[in-house]
Amino acid sequence: MSGVWVFEDGIVRRADSDPPSGAGAGGSRPNKVLVHVPSGEVVTSYDVLERRLRELGWERYLYDPCLLQFHQRSTVHLITVPRDFARLKLVHMYDVVVKTRNVFEVRDAAAPA
Questions:
Q1: Do 14 and 5 contact (CB within 8 A), yes or no?
Q2: All domains of the chain, ordered by start, with CATH?
Q3: Percent of the chain with pLDDT over 90
Q4: Which residues, 6 or more positions from 69, have their beta carbon under 8 angstroms from its beta carbon?
Q5: How many angstroms separate the CA atoms of 35 and 9, rounded?
Q6: What is the predicted pLDDT for the residue at 15?
Q7: Global model pTM greater than 0.90
Q8: DSSP secondary-structure letter at 58?
Q9: Euclidean distance between CA atoms 90 and 95, whole angstroms
Q10: Is the dihedral of CA 14, 15, 17, 18 positive or negative?
Q11: How far apart are CA 69 and CA 50, in angstroms?
Q12: CB 96 within 8 A of CB 104
């Protein structure tokens, strides 16, 4: 990972990255959404995500107070997302996309389905 890294107050961060701002810092994803491609449905909650993953043979895996995890018995893949949907970030969305090829997409929130 290239770039300039700064160590301040015990925290390492990229100096060229945008600093968090406002109330949406951390889990904010103002312009991207996870979409179930076959139905065109935008994933707005973990109920929607879990329902769509179950249709594909994914199961809930272990209990963790901070994370939700799903796995398929036929693969070694594990999808891990934060338990709080508001903390779902772009990296989590792409984790779902990569492990469920051609079923989910990350799209711009303003783009038509």
A1: yes
A2: 30-108 (3.30.920.30)
A3: 45
A4: 60, 61, 62, 78, 79, 80, 81
A5: 39
A6: 67
A7: no
A8: -
A9: 9
A10: positive
A11: 10
A12: yes
